[in-house]
Specification:
- The model is unreliable at 1-10 (pLDDT under 50).
- Helix content is 35%, strand content 28%.
- By secondary structure, it is of the alpha+beta class.
- A hairpin with a 5-residue loop joins strand 2 and strand 3.
- The N and C termini lie far apart (51 Å).
- It has a five-stranded antiparallel β-sheet.
- The longest helix is centred in the middle third of the chain and has 10 residues, at 34-43.
Length: 78
């Protein structure tokens, strides 16, 4: 695992070169708050995550796949 700074963001990469996002970065990438990620993680219903010590990271590709598979389709009727 490699840690590096990218554009002022702290990110890690796992052996398969998948970027790990912090809760804050995952929140910025999605329409959800940090609290939402914490609550979903606690409930066991959120996206896959990795815990390293006390810190939590979200593999970026897994996060993208999770959001894609959990999209709700809304029909707007005018």
């Amino acid at each position: 695992m490699k840690a590096h700074s990218h554009g002022g963001k702290y990110m890690k990469q796992v052996d398969n070169n998948q970027t790990l996002l912090t809760e804050k970065e995952a929140s910025r990438k999605s329409p959800f708050s940090i609290f939402w990620f914490q609550k979903k993680r606690q409930d066991g219903k959120g996206p896959p995550f990795i815990r390293i010590g006390r810190r939590v990271f979200y593999p970026e590709l897994d996060l993208d796949e999770w959001f894609s598979s959990h999209k709700r389709h809304v029909n707007l009727i005018k």
